[in-house]
């Protein structure tokens, strides 16, 4: 796991930090939360605790005891309940007060503020809403059959999930930032509720040989995205999980997972490789892919994400594929509205095609 943390004074953001979108975000990996253990994270001005009860089920809540504000992360886990460290009140798996210090059973109104979570594919996500409203969409996890185990890396950037997700809807960035050639849409971004997806083709090189690379992207809200990159001629599909969690409005953790699917004709990479077992091949390809991904995130996408100033676009641009790029940026801005409270919505000016 690679960690990069830069010094950052959150009281003096380098750019005009935009609000935190209301969304499902990464909490931690399943393996990081053992039975009877707990973890806390900060998001904005809030702290959220997660613990795994003896049944194996994870529970999350605001890290504040409703009695007199004790910090629950200093308390104990008892079966599927959590006990506050201040007066030992015990809250059950529904969050209700189960018993007080004097053994008084009381299922009255005192209740933890539970936070919605979901656990699948070895990942735990939680739902953040500025006013603690219930989630209005679900996460659909991709199926993992015939895919290698996910290998994760964790980084931190001075940015906001808005720019991270905008990145993948912005076709031009594949050419400008990642230096791919001949970038074109197969499917310009389409939205469906909380989902935004697109398919892009570009030229990739393996040695001197040119290959078609297809990038199939889907984001569900701001904290969960899956990018599948296929080089059919090489017989290889790489799935990137793009998970994020904002800490403040201008600081964000990015958790990237890499998983490999070997197609039948992977011997195209090299004929000798067809003799190796697929499991061993994925073990070789995964770290190589992770290093390449790290390079792109750290030295290329970072230019895109960090220290941005949000300005509603006023200059028209010539897009590619008959203006599909222009439409995609408009679509992204409109889609992003779903995740902001009314007072936090970003100002917009429609992109227009430049007349020459
Ligand atoms: S503050 Fe938690 S039990 Fe009193
Ligand atoms: Fe990128």
From TrEMBL:
Matches recorded under PROSITE patterns: RIESKE (PS51296)
Keyword Membrane: yes
Organism superkingdom: Bacteria
Keywords: 2Fe-2S, Iron, Iron-sulfur, Membrane, Metal-binding, Oxidoreductase, Transmembrane, Transmembrane helix
Domain annotation Rieske: ranges: 25-126
Major localization class: membrane
Cellular compartments annotated: Membrane
GO molecular function, a single term: oxidoreductase activity
Cellular-component GO terms for this entry: cytoplasm; membrane
ATP-binding in keyword set: no
InterPro entries attached to this UniProt entry: Cholesterol_7-desaturase, Rieske_2Fe-2S, Rieske_2Fe-2S_sf
Entries under SUPFAM superfamilies matching the protein: ISP domain
UniProt protein name: Rieske domain-containing protein
Organism: Candidatus Endobugula sertula (Bugula neritina bacterial symbiont)
Highest classification ranks of the organism: Bacteria, Pseudomonadati, Pseudomonadota, Gammaproteobacteria, Cellvibrionales
